[in-house]
Design brief:
This protein is of the alpha/beta class. It contains 14 helices and 12 strands.
Length: about 375
């Protein structure tokens, strides 16, 4: 990324002070017309671009102006509907929006929400709309499953996105450390005696999170001796649980780890399995600390606030466009004990010869799968 031309560079080339350059670019009558025009012409030739956010903040501080004069950061909703970000089923993603708004206000900025797909708008038109309004700070919200990063005119903006880094973009990212979160869940389950963890994910999660959850499961066999992770179950949608029964009978996990524990638990109940008496259940994305489901609290509020902090840093350094190398900030999750795990009476062996306190073996309680 080309280094921006600063006011100091313009002043050195013009042979004047930075104050003279500043007043000339602001059309101050204190500077002779000929001098103002010479410096303005030189600034254009050098490619100098003033930072409107810093200028607006300084002007507001000098004049004591109201909230309406604060610089704007765009929060871009990338979902398919106007209210997709605010009304998504994911509590973590909703928290990201709240955290971003509150952090921007605390830092003296305003935010405006924009829907990327409004009226069939193209990425080019969307970019021009923001540019025309002098909006340069952009926080791109999480993408819908299967969606790709929009091809905005990134040179106009100081951009940051909320989500894992993707291989086809160097856009600066802020996200949960999904790899670490999976390991943390399995380690906590291991401490309670669960030795055969099994992931239940969507097929789309493999590309969406670049294998981070799957990778965390795979390495625990070496990091946590005695742990025997089973083959993950990948579903097409959260409404298609037909493969679950056969997977339970074949793989015999003693704890299920998933980002959508509510849907999984409802289906387990339909199969006659009780949580945690028959099977442990842990979430990769608890809604909050104190949630009844055991698992990881990602703290979406902190993720959104960190995204705003990074946007502001780019703005105040007058950095625009995509970096040449991806920069990512990952937020560690926090363990939430919950009530969907319980200690086991004895460790599980390779054949899962395990008794849950007061219950029969799990695989004896499972209904026979069709064709067995």
């Amino acid at each position: 990324m080309k280094k921006p031309v600063t006011m100091k560079v313009v002043a050195e080339k013009a042979g004047v002070t930075q104050a003279t350059v500043s007043m000339s670019l602001a059309h101050s009558p204190r500077i002779p017309v000929a001098t103002r025009q010479r410096i303005q012409r030189l600034a254009r030739q050098l490619g100098y671009r003033p930072n409107p956010y810093v200028a607006t903040l300084m002007r507001s501080r000098r004049l004591g102006r109201a909230h309406a004069d604060r610089p704007i950061i765009a929060l871009i909703n990338c979902y398919d509907t106007l209210t997709g970000w605010r009304e998504t089923d994911s509590a973590t993603v909703r928290q990201m929006l709240t955290g971003a708004i509150e952090c921007a206000q605390d830092r003296g900025y305003r935010v405006e929400e924009f829907w990327l797909h409004q009226d069939g708008m193209t990425a080019g038109r969307f970019s021009e709309m923001l540019f025309t309004r002098s909006i340069q700070g952009v926080l791109l919200g999480p993408l819908a499953i299967g969606a790709s990063i929009p091809k905005l005119t990134w040179d106009y903006f100081a951009p940051v996105r909320l989500g894992v880094p993707l291989p086809d973009s160097t856009l600066t990212s802020v996200c949960n450390d999904h790899f670490s979160s999976c390991i943390q869940v399995i380690r906590s389950c291991r401490h309670l005696g669960y030795l055969r963890p099994g992931l239940v994910l969507l097929e789309a999660h493999l590309t969406r999170f670049q294998g981070r959850w799957d990778g965390g499961l795979m390495v625990t066999e070496r990091l946590l001796p005695g742990t025997e992770p089973v083959k993950p179950l990948l579903l097409k949608t959260w409404t298609d649980f037909a493969p679950l029964k056969g997977w339970l009978q074949q793989e015999r996990p003693d704890v299920i780890i998933t980002p959508t524990p509510g849907a999984v638990q409802n289906h387990l109940r339909g199969l006659g399995c009780q949580v945690p008496q028959d099977l442990g259940l842990a979430s990769l994305a608890c809604a909050q600390l104190g949630d009844p489901t055991s698992g990881i609290f990602q703290n979406g509020h902190l993720i959104g606030a960190t995204g705003i902090d990074m946007v502001i840093g780019l703005l105040e350094r007058n950095e625009r466009g995509l970096p040449t190398q991806t920069r990512t900030v990952m937020i560690e999750g926090v363990w939430n004990p919950g009530k969907t795990l319980r200690p086991l009476v004895s460790p599980a062996g390779p054949g899962h010869r395990l008794r849950v306190r007061g219950k029969r073996k799990l695989h004896q309680r499972m209904p026979a799968a069709k064709g067995d």
